[in-house]
Specification:
The structure holds two protein chains of two kinds.
Chain A (H helix, E strand, L loop, with lengths): L4 E2 L1 H11 L16 E2 L3 E8 L17 H10 L6 E2 L6 E2 L10 E3 L4 E5 L13 H13 L16 E8 L2 E6 L5 H7 L9 H4 L15 H15 L18 E6 L5 E5 L13 E7 L2 H9 L5 E4 L7 H6 L2 E6 L3 E6 L8 H4 L2 H8 L4 H8 L4 E2 L16 H4 L7 H9 L3 E4 L2 E4 L20 E7 L3 H16 L3 E7 L1 H7 L14 E3 L6 E2 L24 H12 L5 H12 L2 E4 L1 E2 L2 E6 L2 E2 L15 E3 L1
Parallel strand pairs in A: 3-12, 19-20, 19-21
Antiparallel strand pairs in A: 1-6, 2-27, 4-5, 6-7, 7-9, 8-9, 10-11, 11-12, 13-25, 14-25, 15-22, 15-23, 16-24, 17-18, 26-27
Chain B lengths: L1 H27 L6 H5 L5 H10 L6 H13 L13 H36 L4 H15 L2 H15 L13 H6 L2 H30 L2 H8 L4 H30 L2 H6 L5 H11 L2 H29 L1 H7 L1
Classes of the chains: A alpha+beta, B mainly alpha.
InterPro entries (chain A): Peptide/Ni-bd, SBP_5, SBP_5_dom
Family (chain A): Belongs to the bacterial solute-binding protein 5 family.
GO molecular function (chain A): peptide transmembrane transporter activity
Chain lengths: ~600, ~325
């Protein structure tokens, strides 16, 4: 492909908007009432969420989404994707740069910066972007978002064209959609003239241009970032270029952002301040919502039935759907059941036994939506294939049972056992010994009534087709510990199925490719799923410039069932004060408080 | 007494040392370590390896424990993995708030329970005694979360007399400045405690009422009020004092449910959340504090009993 590819993402967004694609998930009326300038809003954070990082290079343990939400109001990222346009797309106003221009067959990216200013009065320049790259390159092991081979490894050269323009020479051709949405969104220009120092009170220089210097600068900045109580007073964090600055940042988790009077971009805040309020539990938060103590809160799933009384207290109640999928991975390397899981017909039978509509409607009180494949289904996007949208494996216990019995399984005492060993069309399949019984164990995340009920429903459904399911409930981190990639000979390979999706199993960046979860080399391909065809489709979706590549991957993976597709719970059910307007509930779980306003 | 104290302090040090060993071993016997819990499902293998290296999980268990003990001797409880602060500062923030809550709850409970226990004992087997016993048992049997919920519904939603959450300030002065917001959490904590203490007090007073010295005092013409409040009260307080000593770790470990319902981050929640996320340094620090409170509490209980009761004093010489 020789001609430059421009504005692929914007074009797609416009197309989608024209087609009327909408998340159906708007927050408060975006354009209602007379806007009041100023005012303060209180936003309730998830239970026990404690913001603990503001430095734009997150180290492991500091990558929580609320850290990102707060940080990008103060330090603008190069590019931001969100759902404010009705689908997940580039939000040009919320970033620092104009849309990137790809050339050289997807190997060169040309980026021009918008006219923005740091609080010091200096312009945001290419040098500030280079500074970020230099720090990340020299300290990539400490960067929490680092994946070997991705940013910064895939950038061969940073070429400064001018103060407002630079080029990235990539190590190979990448899909522009993927590179912009899933790589460039990590990049955040940082104030080199203020932060390029190696110690407190030190003189700023070009230390970042040597590896040793960049390490010292990074060490100093991360050290300062560890002092939460100084976030509101340390001059380092005052150097904002975003619509807000930090006014308060307590060690107990309360953060207040104040309107940045020195912001020079097109996305000026309406409100004077936004307070992010920590809560010890969703019950405590609900008590405060009931008394009208927060402007933007949420309801625990069990309280959704009380929506009417919350609405009567002056709120709108709206689900906030996340750009995520929820699933149960199979452990294909489990010594006891791996061979069974490798049979597509078994996976089809299991999938057809999951009554996703009923689970979503009844057990999740309509606050979850069925999911049939590897791409988020809400909001509708250009990445979603017709195959996934039409659900190739609808709930049908009779068909599911027939799939098993037609492949050599006989059901006695409610559990199927293999009567016809072998790899023929009517036999159980390769590696399955005669007498093998279909008895699975699932490690399931504890602490959620909805999840507990869902597991029992799945257990009940599977029992009707001859599959016994034992449920082992554990805290989330234990489930994650036990759900490790493994080899059959390892003791850690004893897990068979795993559920860690009470709040969604996997939140995607804007471009929902599956290289981390479904490629054979994926770091979070927990069940060790291997399919060369999937690897090839994933490679195409991230490296080729074919806009249909991700749909092709989606269609294939939807049908090949590397995991059990499950209903995807909403990120939260929000309670938004009726006079708080301009709220769009972003599927990527970020917020844009600069666009919120109070209606008179 | 001095020998007794020295011996008990020596025992306490040994107990605390063993507590740290056992808790450390238990925590580190969990397969996989805390990396996944802290970094979440999206953590790359490189991030997990870096986390394990940074926190010393790639070293032997003995080396890890030795490093922990060395830091402990230097007064360093380590850094929380999730809260970006030192454990000492976290505990320093939470303990005063927790002590205000649990201390006030206990104080309120005692102020109600002691006179109530005496009053019931003097009317034993009467209608009033049975009625109060029933009420007390209901209070004791009601789960705290349910009790707290009822208080919230009645006082914050139905009548709107009180705020729905505890004071949202970081300073102790701020807590008392917003004292209205303290009423519900203190009340919720006090109700169950009233039940326990009043039953102890009632049975202690009953025991003492049957003693010879009470009959003697009455025979000498002492008024009933004087008999009860001067003679019986002091002797009846012995089990309450003992109980208060053993109650000390409870004061320090916080009131998880109340903290959770009233949005009051104290020690209970700190420990609970650390357990959920495998934040080992916080767990170890909190256990250490509670172990200290336990041994100090039991020592205090013994000493106070000795001061109050000469029979106990004789036994520990």
């Amino acid at each position: 492909m020789k001609r430059p590819l421009t504005l692929a993402v914007i074009g797609a967004a416009v197309t989608l908007l024209a087609a009327g694609c909408s998340s159906g998930d708007q927050g408060s009326d975006a354009k209602g009432g007379t806007a009041q300038q100023g005012g303060s809003v209180t936003f309730a954070m998830p239970p026990n969420a404690t913001p603990n990082w503001i430095f734009p290079i997150g180290t492991p343990g500091h990558l929580a989404s609320f850290n990102g939400s707060i940080r990008q109001e103060v330090f603008l990222p190069l590019y931001t994707y969100d759902g404010t346009s009705g689908t997940v797309a580039l939000d040009e106003k919320a970033g620092v740069a104009k849309p990137p221009v790809y050339s050289n067959g997807g190997k060169t990216v040309d980026i021009k910066l918008n006219d923005l200013t740091w609080a010091s009065g200096q312009k945001v320049t290419s040098r500030d972007v280079e500074f970020w790259f230099n720090l990340v390159k020299a300290n990539k092991a400490q960067w929490g978002n680092y994946n070997a081979g991705d940013l910064p490894d895939n950038v061969a050269k940073f070429d400064t064209v001018s103060d407002t323009e630079f080029k990235l020479e990539l190590t190979k051709a990448y899909n522009p959609d993927w590179f912009t949405a899933n790589q460039l969104t990590y990049v955040t220009p940082i104030p080199q003239a203020v932060w390029d120092v190696q110690s407190a009170g030190g003189k700023a220089g070009d230390y970042d241009r040597t590896t040793d210097g960049a390490k010292k600068v990074f060490k100093y900045l991360t050290g300062e970032a560890g002092k939460l109580s100084e976030y509101a007073s340390n001059p380092l964090w005052k150097a904002a270029d975003g619509p807000f600055t930090v006014k308060e940042f307590t060690t107990t988790g309360q953060v207040t952002l104040a309107k940045n009077p020195k912001y020079t971009g097109p996305d000026t805040a309406h409100l004077d301040s936004v307070t992010f309020k920590p809560f010890t539990s969703s019950d405590a938060e609900l008590n405060v919502v009931r008394s009208g103590g927060v402007d933007y809160g949420y309801l625990p799933a069990l309280a959704v039935s009380q929506s009417k009384s919350i609405e009567n207290a002056g709120y709108q109640v709206k689900p906030w759907n996340g750009w995520a999928i929820t699933y149960i991975p199979y452990n294909f390397n489990n010594p006891a059941m791996g061979a069974v899981f490798k049979q597509l017909y078994v996976r089809q039978a299991v999938q057809m036994s999951i009554d996703q509509s009923t689970i979503s409607r009844v057990l999740w009180h309509d606050e979850a939506a069925p999911g049939y494949g590897p791409v988020p289904q809400q909001p509708v996007s250009k990445y979603l294939s017709p195959t996934q949208q039409t659900n190739p494996y609808p709930f049908d216990l009779n068909k599911a049972k027939a799939l098993l019995t037609s492949h050599g399984w006989t059901i006695a005492n409610g559990v199927a056992s293999c009567a016809q060993a072998g790899s023929g069309a009517t036999q159980c399949g390769a590696g399955i010994k005669a007498g093998t019984r279909l008895k699975f164990t699932i490690d399931s995340q504890s602490g959620s009534t909805e999840t507990d009920n869902m597991m029992q429903e799945v257990q009940s459904s599977l029992s009707k087709i001859g599959i016994g399911l034992s449920i082992k409930a554990e805290p989330l981190n234990s489930v994650l510990d036990h759900t490790a990639q493994c080899k059959p000979s390892q003791s850690s390979c004893s897990w068979q199925l795993s559920f860690f999706g009470t709040a969604g199993s996997w939140y995607f960046p804007a471009y929902p490719s599956g290289e981390q979860i479904f490629s054979s080399t994926g770091g979070t391909n927990l069940g060790s799923y291997v399919d060369p065809a999937v690897d090839d489709l994933i490679k195409k979706s991230t490296s080729s410039t074919d806009p249909a590549a991700l749909q092709d991957y989606d269609a294939y993976v939807t049908k090949s069932l590397p995991v059990i597709w499950m209903p995807n719970p909403a990120y939260q059910v929000s309670a938004i004060k009726k006079n708080l307007r301009g709220v769009i509930q972003d599927p990527l779980a970020n917020i844009q408080p600069q666009r919120w306003y109070l209606a008179k | 007494m001095t020998r007794f104290l020295a011996k008990r302090i020596g025992q306490a040090i040994v107990v605390i040392f063993f507590v740290t060993v056992i808790v450390f071993l238990l925590l580190h016997s969990v397969p996989g370590g805390p990396a996944h819990g802290i970094l979440g499902p999206k953590a790359s293998p490189q991030a997990i390896a870096e986390f394990n290296r940074e926190h010393g999980f790639d070293k032997s268990l003995f080396q890890q424990y030795w490093a922990y003990l060395s830091e402990l001797f230097h007064g360093d409880l380590g850094e929380s993995y999730t809260l970006n602060q030192s454990v000492a500062s976290l505990i320093g923030q939470r303990i005063p708030k927790t002590l205000v809550l649990t201390g006030l709850s206990t104080l309120v409970a005692l102020l109600v329970a002691i006179p109530l226990g005496v009053w019931q004992a003097r009317r034993r087997k009467g209608l009033a005694d049975y009625a109060v016993t029933t009420l007390v048992f209901v209070g004791y049997a009601t789960p705290v979360f349910f009790l707290a919920l009822i208080l919230v519904i009645v006082f914050t939603q139905k009548t709107q007399l009180l705020p729905p959450q505890a004071p949202q300030t970081q300073s102790i002065a701020g807590l008392f400045a917003d004292s209205r917001a303290l009423i519900l959490p203190v009340l919720a904590g006090a109700i169950a405690t009233v039940a326990a203490f009043s039953r102890y007090m009632r049975s202690a007073v009953l025991d003492n009422l049957a003693e010879d010295y009470v009959r003697t005092a009455r025979a000498k013409g002492a008024s009933e009020r004087r008999v009860v409040w001067l003679h019986i009260m002091r002797n009846s307080l012995t089990p309450i004092i003992a109980m208060l000593g053993y109650y000390l770790p409870v004061l320090f470990s916080g009131a998880l449910v109340i903290e959770s319902v009233f949005n009051y981050p104290g020690m209970g929640l700190l420990f609970w959340n650390a357990a959920q996320t495998s934040d080992y340094p916080i767990l170890l620090g909190a256990v250490l504090v509670i172990a200290l409170a336990t041994v100090i509490g039991s020592l205090l209980a013994d000493v106070l009993q000795a001061l109050v009761d000469p029979r106990v004093r004789g036994a520990i010489r």
